[in-house]
Specification:
Length: 310
């Protein structure tokens, strides 16, 4: 059963890493460093993601890197900012609509990030996060399946249940990045069944089905209403967010939102209602943004359809 901690609040999009982003905007490196080091290395991802493309921060970080006697963490933060900056240049548009100049900037910024990440990996060989971010740069630079798998393996050797790395590798093996539907679902299912009970990796199954739904088009409710899909999603939830050993880690709101959406779309109203109540109005952009009307309106619409009004 999901622990229900409901509050009557207006739905709002969860913004990761607010304190870190604010400290970076103030150009307060000691505060950024201390906020990151206050949590385990495996939980840095949402904090780094919250920095976005780091407008006004990248140049400042270059100065920090020059002055720091041990600049590994500053290099990691800088690389994360460059990755976001790279994707800002490329945009989420289909490749055929991206100009040659956009691709040039995209690859240039990703190569800067790659260089910094390899230096971090050399300086801090126990860290998983540089290898996780190298999965993202590698996909953008089209390094190919073998190097991508080697980068994924480098993460899971250090942190076997690193959710971010699993989500990135799932994208790598998806059809839209040169993989296939079968390979993607096999990866998601194998990762989930090989993990401990209550692991966050169960959400991979939900994400894989969201990817399949988007790839096939048509009505989302029709896709998620298929009996085989519903059974797979129920088992994935039972192994993860609905398992008594599930712990609310830094990405728990994303996990709950993903399952709430697929259950609501598939007519699993009771299961969706339980997750909506536990979320208490917390909305994550992904996966709700895929429903076209905006994350908060989509969340609110389907929450109401499931009978949750607070």
């Amino acid at each position: 059963m999901v622990g229900v901690v409901a509050r009557r609040v207006w739905p709002r999009v969860e913004k990761p890493g607010g304190e870190v982003a604010e400290a970076a905007r103030r150009q307060d490196w000691p505060a950024v460093r201390d906020l990151l080091l206050a949590v385990p290395e495996g939980e840095w991802e949402p904090l780094l993601r919250g920095l976005g493309d780091g407008e006004g921060v990248r140049e400042w970080l270059a100065e920090v890197i020059e002055k720091e006697p041990e600049p590994a963490l500053a290099l990691l933060v800088s690389a994360s900012c460059h990755i976001h900056w790279a994707w800002e240049a490329r945009t989420d548009t289909l490749a055929k609509y991206v100009s040659a100049e956009q691709f040039r900037l995209f690859h240039e910024r990703l190569r800067i990030a790659e260089e910094q990440l390899y230096e971090v990996a050399e300086r801090e060989p126990a860290w998983a996060e540089p290898w996780h971010l190298l999965l993202i740069t590698g996909r953008g630079l089209e390094v190919g399946p073998t190097p991508a798998y080697e980068r994924f393996e480098a993460v899971v050797r250090r942190q076997p249940e690193h959710l971010g790395a699993h989500l990135q590798y799932l994208q790598q093996v998806a059809a839209k990045w040169g993989g296939s539907d079968e390979e993607m679902h096999h990866f998601a299912w194998t990762a989930m069944t090989g993990a401990r009970p209550g692991s966050p990796l169960g959400v991979l199954v939900a994400v894989a089905h969201i990817e399949s739904m988007l790839d096939r088009g048509g009505r989302p409710s029709h896709y998620f209403g298929q009996p085989t899909v519903r059974r797979a999603l129920r088992e994935a939830a039972d192994r993860s967010v609905c398992h008594p050993d599930h712990r609310r880690g830094p990405e728990w709101a994303f996990e709950y939102n993903a399952f709430a959406m697929v259950f609501a779309l598939g007519g699993e109203t009771r299961a969706a209602r339980q997750l909506f109540r536990a979320l208490g109005g917390r909305v994550t952009e992904s996966p709700w943004r895929y429903l076209s009307v905006g994350a908060v309106p989509a969340y609110r619409r389907w929450r109401h359809r499931c009978g949750v009004w607070f």
